[in-house]
Design goal:
The chain is mostly helical. It has one domain. Helices cover 59% and strands 3% of the residues. The chain contains 20 helices and six strands. The strands form three sheets. A two-stranded antiparallel sheet has the order 1-6. The chain has a two-stranded antiparallel sheet with strand order 2-3. A two-stranded antiparallel sheet has the order 4-5. The longest helix has 29 residues. It is globular, with a radius of gyration of 22 Å. The termini are far apart.
Length: 492
Amino acid sequence: MTTAPPTRQAPAEPANALDRFFEISRRGSTVSTEIRGGLVTFVTMAYIVILNPIILSGKPDVAGDMLDFNAVGAATALTAGVMTILFGLVTRLPFGFAAGLGINAFVAFSVVGQVTWPEAMALVMINGAIIVLLAATGLRKAIFDAVPFQLKIAITVGIGLFIAFIGFVNSGFVTATGASSPPVGLGVNGSVATVPSLLFVVTLIITGILVALRIKGGMLIGLIGGTVLAVIVEAIWQIGPRGFDDEGNVVNAGGWGLTVPALTGSPVSVPDLSLIGAVDFSFDLGKVSLVAIVMIVFTLLFTNFFDAMGTMTGLAKEANLADDNGDFPRIKSALVVEGVGAIAGGATSSSSSTVFIESGAGIGEGARTGLANVVTGLVFLVAMFFTPLTSIVPTEIAAAALIIVGAMMMAQIRHIDFADFRVLLPVFLTVSVMPLTYSIANGIGAGFVSWVLIHAFSGRARSISPLLWVVGAGFLIFFARGPIEALFGVGI
């Protein structure tokens, strides 16, 4: 007697136009789940409204001018809100957008030493225009298609570890020792010695239990509960913020990292949008060379190009929206809109806006469609007027969600067969270099270059795609850009 093969269950019929547009039922989700996931994504991303101004506003440019803190904060929230909603509507994917940390740090600490802030943001916009062109012509997708399946999985796993490492650092659970060996350590002097870090641990355990029990909204419940507990603790003990004195010494080492969970003054403020359109394309070639401009754009392009693609692939895998080749729905549109995010970020002086890996928190909560993005984006727009409320969630509490997401993404490594060392070493380098260098692009580059070289010199040269050769060579230039800049007398 033969048994008929099981029939594949048909997707649920859409309940209404909203369901049909976002494919909510088809992806096994619900409106309430998407709303919950969008809120979780916002909670884990909200720190960027505070952190981005800290990075960008404290650095004078070549002319000695600085960006206003409140203006950068408002521009950051506005750009994140608009781009997150746009991405959700165009691609129907739950990937939140905000100012990219790697790019804004590069702009603040390297680029504005050569150009003014308006010129730096013009370069960010040029970078975005090139990305849009590459995406629209299909070249960006073709390059990523040339990436072997094992490296795509490695990118997902590496991003998971990167997310977790960000969470550990933001929570104070992992800190720099100031010594050459080991460079990082546990908490303060090898122990969890601060109240904020202790609350991180408590939130992590509680959230982990809720997720393990498959309680709906477990991650959001954990984050809200941890925040409420932090507000109560701060109200009782007045812990205050951690900071530095004029000589660089740590002041109040046991304080909160970036945000103090307490409301002071009015929770409402009028956003300062004066930085919108503050860009300058008339570069003074007497102060900065054309070679310097080209190298700046090259570095921005490589960082933006591969950070975003790696992040989107990892998030799509986590949401079960990617196929075996790493492709996901409306991938071309997603790549074009991501390039538009760089243009928008430059136009608002908030730095390139790109896909945020913290979106994995909302995906972990169940988000599967662009409706979650609409929710996240709307809250970002509202956050422009409620900066005090946005800053009430301490990074130590939000960090717990990042650890949970990192653990979830780590599970993807089971799909890789490590029997072949030609695969093992590039995968290992991809996964380890990302968190250790604090850069997704560095991890991807290490994986690409090692894959090409190891396969080429071990008898597998014919298996390497021509595009992968080109990208590998590009990453070699990317890694060697310091000596190249020195050769041409460029100091960036």
